[in-house]
Amino acid sequence: MEQVVDEPQWIYMFADSSRVLTIVVSIFLIVYGCFRALGLDATFSGSEDADEDQANQNDSPFARLMDGFQTINTAQAVFLPVGASFSLLVMFFFFDTLQFFFALCTAVLAMVAFSFVLLPICQFLTRPCFANNNQKLYIGFCGRFTPAEVMSLICSAALVMVWIVTGHWVLMDALAMGLCISMIAYIRLPSLKVSTLLLIGLLIYDVFWVFFSSYIFKANVMVQVATQQAANPVSIMANKLKMSSMANISPQISLPGKLIFPSMQERGRFSMLGLGDIVMPGLLLCFVMRYDRYKKQAAVAADTEQAKITYFHCSLIGYVVGLVTATVASEVYKAAQPALLYLVPFTLLPIIVMAYLKGDLRKMWQDPFVAAGAKLKFLEV
């Protein structure tokens, strides 16, 4: 009798709109970000070094930053969890003091990232208006930008301003999606070794701060930082200008470091997924997608048969299984779960096993794209 009653509740749990949207949107962000990364590979590989040097002499530092990839090396993969832990503690202890600074930095990053997402649409809209859509316009100290880049930045800045004024969760999610896609498209993992070091380190980081931080800091540091709301910058400025009416109507804002989807079936229920749980596995999937393309080009050149099941298919299925497992665990234990505890094994282990069986493990463990002449540059710390 009890089993008959419980069964619909489990079905309802998986059919809840917030959980379905979390899974579907995270998969879309990873897949789209990987394809944008391949598009950037094709764009940058076709450019000549001489043209790039000439452009770098005239462009702003911001424009030069966006004209190449940022590759994580071995040392950075090892120390990134340490840096992330330090940043988490700063936000935990000093969030109230530095919340305006955190909100400002997040707004700027979100604006730049979302402009990257809007860029293809803006290129399509501006193409009929300009004979050469790649011609760059000089905008003072900001540097040189194409008309599409200017349009995307303006639209993104407008979205950020509306988000700051309203604090609506839909706009916050939109900016967070832009951050996810941009990071997956621009950040590169050069080898399976670096991918393994980075993901295992972040798994330990995630598990420690979710499960064990409360024993040291008397609070769940990860959950508290993720759910904190910052004072609205409009409210802060209104208080300084003694405009109490404006300050009272400006809501607090949640920083776009996570995706939040409220449930349509149950009021007050929502699903939350941190951006790191999308971006970090997404970087691994981007790496294997690039390797699949490299293998496909080699197979075409050698006129050999191509494998139907790719590394990307294997890892994407593993990501879905890991995300569903994390969802079930959070429902069973009625507590926040470190998603990377489930996502990392389900995405990384199938790739390693598949690479070993296919004889690609040695090549993937080192940098497989060096021989292909991939143009990379390393992220400075």
What does this structure look like?
The chain is mostly helical and 381 residues long. The chain has 15 helices and 8 strands. The chain has helices at residues 2-15, 17-45, 49-58, 61-65, 74-126, 147-166, 169-186, 192-217, 221-227, 233-240, 244-249, 276-302, 311-333, 340-358, 361-365; strands spanning 70-71, 137-138, 144-145, 187-188, 229-230, 253-254, 258-262, 270-274. The strands form 4 sheets. It has a two-stranded parallel ribbon. A two-stranded antiparallel sheet has the order 2-3. A hairpin with a 7-residue loop joins β7 and β8. It is a multi-pass membrane protein. Keywords: Hydrolase, Membrane, Transmembrane, Transmembrane helix. It comes from Desmophyllum pertusum.
